[in-house]
Design brief:
By secondary structure, this protein is an alpha/beta fold. Helices cover 39% and strands 13% of the residues. The protein contains 8 helices and 6 strands. A hairpin with a 5-residue loop joins strand 3 and strand 4. It starts with 7 loop residues before the first strand and ends in a 17-residue tail after the last helix.
Length: 205
């Protein structure tokens, strides 16, 4: 069922199907800014270096399994197509079997903006419908600030987001993101966070 080699092809962003419910709008804005800084000449090269991994699902649709933030940022910037690399062809599966398979191989994340597990039907049908989880943005910035290391654990940033959700109030994140990030860095270095992927250890005393 898995393809031996990736297949590269341009696909309309409007036709891409998400495999998660939320993302961080703050991180999307950062990627939009990064895209705007590219010249017309280098934009194509940038897209060539940032291909969107997908799997073929029911009716041959492309379900993306990573780079949701990039896809949303490019969509909001008016980019019509992106290069997609197909990791697996699961188009022969029924809808129920397809989502069960994705769930078991950690290729989907059916959790809402409160970190609660939901039904697969809650996953949006388009990139434009993905909802904001500010704690996912906080986790993304936390990693870039050295709060934790990049890790191969699937959806590791969401695990960190859930950790922060329970310790930093939403109104604090909305009121002053930078202050919330400073609090997150302190929390990330605590032994309390030691179970999380990419943990970098406590601050020496």
């Amino acid at each position: 069922m898995n393809l031996r080699e990736p297949l590269l092809k341009p696909v309309a962003i409007d036709e891409l199907r998400p495999t998660q419910i939320t993302l961080g709008f703050h991180e999307v804005d950062q990627k939009r800014k990064e895209w705007r800084e590219k010249t017309a000449a280098s934009g194509g090269a940038y897209l060539g270096r940032h291909m969107i991994p997908s799997v073929l699902g029911p009716k041959g649709r492309h379900y993306i399994i990573d780079n949701h933030h990039l896809a949303r940022a490019l969509h909001e910037e008016g980019v019509k197509e992106v290069l997609v690399t197909v990791a697996a062809d699961l188009s022969a599966l029924s809808r129920a079997s397809f989502w069960t398979y994705l769930d078991n191989v950690s290729w989907c994340h059916p959790y809402d903006a409160e970190g609660r597990r939901t039904k697969f039907d809650a996953i949006p049908h388009s990139i434009a419908e993905l909802r904001n989880d500010p704690y996912r943005s906080l986790a993304g910035d936390l990693r870039h600030a050295g709060g934790f290391a990049k890790d191969i654990t699937p959806f590791s940033e969401f695990l960190w987001a859930d950790f922060l959700r329970k310790r930093i109030k939403r109104k604090a994140v909305d009121a002053d993101f930078d202050a919330a990030l400073r609090s997150a860095v302190k929390l990330a270095k605590s032994r309390e966070a030691g179970y999380l992927p990419g943990w970098c250890g406590p601050i020496p005393i």
